[in-house]
Design brief:
This protein has 2 domains: about 15-40 and about 305-410, Aspartate Aminotransferase, domain 1 (Alpha-Beta Complex); about 45-300, Aspartate Aminotransferase, domain 2 (3-Layer(aba) Sandwich). It has 14 helices and 17 strands. It has helices at about 40-55, 65-85, 100-115, 130-140, 160-165, 190-195, 210, 215-220, 245-250, 285-300, 305-320, 350-360, 375-380, 395-410; strands at about 25, 25-30, 30, 90-95, 120-125, 145-150, 170-175, 200-205, 225-230, 240-245, 260-265, 270, 325-330, 340-345, 365, 365-370, 385-390. The strands form 5 sheets. A 7-stranded mixed beta sheet has the order 4-10-9-8-7-5-6, with helices on both faces. A 4-stranded antiparallel beta sheet has the order 13-14-17-16, covered by helices on one side. Strands 1-2 form a two-stranded antiparallel ribbon. Helix 6 links the parallel strand 7 and strand 8 (about 200-205). The protein is globular, with a radius of gyration of 22 Å. The chain starts with about 20 loop residues before the first strand and ends with a helix. The model is unreliable at about 1-10 (pLDDT under 50). It binds pyridoxal-5'-phosphate.
Length: about 425
């Protein structure tokens, strides 16, 4: 199968990403921070540029031809984005990022449905975006916030899930499909099935999963599935919420204002139909067009191939980093159970020093708590270093990482 730039066999797509030609002090850019944000292919940059140069007008308002072009590009992007994740277009809502998508549910659904005596069940591996909204929602409603543990091997226990569900009070299970720290791929369809059998709804944070593994929202069956465009080769400023349409119909609007109303009277208003009821104000038009181009690019690559490519890179990284004395990696030991993320610590060197020394070699990794402080507390560390992959990474990036980590060890020896 040919990739978008015509390569025939393995993923050889670096030429599609203009930024990857940058050098720093003569060294090539080794970008290993795709879990923070991905780089963008030429086709995404061109789609955004073309929108502003040739089609820019506000949407859902104008009747002149240019405005109708903008409408068609925006709604056409929504259709392709929904199709990419196997979701209905009508219940695919654009938000500004995954954080905003989760907040939409935490305000609109949770504050009207949670009661004292209910529980929201999250996990110790959540990003703050899937913790803090539930802290506020449970505090506002008197519901309880409980956590599923992360085991030594970086996985969740389905037995503990069943025990929690058997308590009979769980109204919502909210969890990551793929951990941004451990890389763990949670058995999401299985979790949804168990939660539904116990009468609980499920929200999935798919921020890391959608860019890395094939995701079919309809097959997963979660009530809410949220993700973010900038990690999936798209621009910043756009996120996606796929939701059960009956739930969306029943939920009150989250943000209110222009474009989400049917009619406004002096004291009351009525709402547009889905998905526009949840898209107040001028939406992220060019960003949707850019994300549409991103999912076209990923579809042409094939998400099975992206997954296999990143699985191989992770396997190679675990072996190579693991061979360095004093380096500890986190997460499931088998690359089959994890996505393209490897968190690690280097004995005797603070993760921030590791990242800074690697930066001097133009090797870009992240060192922090990764917006997962409860998980850091569980792991007993303040921070980790983290290398994360996109489809454009190659084995030589891993070699550069490992060599730079070995050099950092020498500096601190
Ligand atoms: C699992 C997960 N959830 C949520 C987020 C937040 O994404 P955004 O800042 O685009 O809302 C991230 C970003 O790192 C993430 O990895």
């Amino acid at each position: 199968m040919a990739s978008p730039n015509g390569a025939a066999t393995e993923l050889d797509i670096r030429a599609d990403f203009p930024i990857l030609t940058r050098t720093l002090r003569g060294r090539p850019l080794v970008y290993l921070d795709s879990s923070s944000t991905s780089q963008k292919p030429e086709s995404v940059l061109a789609a955004i540029d073309d929108f502003y140069r040739a089609h820019n007008a506000n949407i859902h308002r104008g009747v002149y031809p240019l405005a109708l072009e903008a409408d068609a590009l925006f709604e056409g992007a929504r259709e392709r984005i929904a199709a990419f994740t196997g979701a209905p277009t009508r219940s695919t809502v654009f938000t500004s990022n995954v954080t905003a998508a989760i907040n939409l549910v935490a305000y609109s659904w949770a504050r009207t449905n949670l009661r004292a005596g209910d529980a929201v069940l999250i996990t110790e591996m959540e990003h703050h975006s899937n913790i803090v909204p539930w802290q506020l929602a449970t505090q506002a409603t008197g519901a309880q916030l409980r956590y599923l543990d992360v085991g030594e091997d970086g996985t969740l226990s389905l037995q503990q899930l069943d025990e929690e569900l058997a308590r009979g009070d769980v109204a919502l299970v909210a969890l990551a499909h793929l951990s941004n720290v451990l890389g763990t791929i949670n058995p999401i369809a299985e979790i949804v099935e168990r939660a539904h059998s116990a009468g609980a709804l499920v929200l999935v944070d798919g921020a890391q999963a959608v860019p890395q593994i094939p995701v079919n929202v309809s097959e997963i069956g979660a009530d809410f599935y949220a993700w973010t465009g900038h990690k999936a080769l798209g621009p910043t400023g756009i996120g996606v919420l796929h939701a059960d349409s009956a739930l969306l119909e029943a939920m009150p609007p989250f943000l209110a204002g222009g474009d989400m109303i049917e009619a406004v009277e002096r004291q009351r208003s009525s709402w547009k139909e889905l998905p526009w009821k949840f898209e107040a104000g001028t939406t992220m038009i060019a960003e949707a067009v850019g994300l549409g181009a991103a999912v076209d690019y990923l579809s042409a690559l094939g998400m099975e191939r992206v997954r296999e490519h990143e699985r191989e890179l992770v396997a190679y990284t675990l072996t190579q980093l693991g061979a360095l004395p004093g380096v500890r990696t986190y997460g499931p030991p088998s690359p089959d159970d994890r996505g393209g993320v490897v968190s690690f610590v280097v004995e005797g060197v603070h993760p921030h020093d590791v990242a800074e020394l690697l930066g001097r070699e133009n090797v870009c990794i992240r060192a922090s708590h990764h917006c997962a402080q409860p998980l850091m507390a569980k792991l007993g560390v303040a921070a980790t270093a983290r290398a994360s992959f996109g489809p454009y990474n190659v084995r030589s990036d891993v070699d550069a990482l490992v060599s730079a980590v070995a050099n950092a060890q020498k500096v601190f020896a």
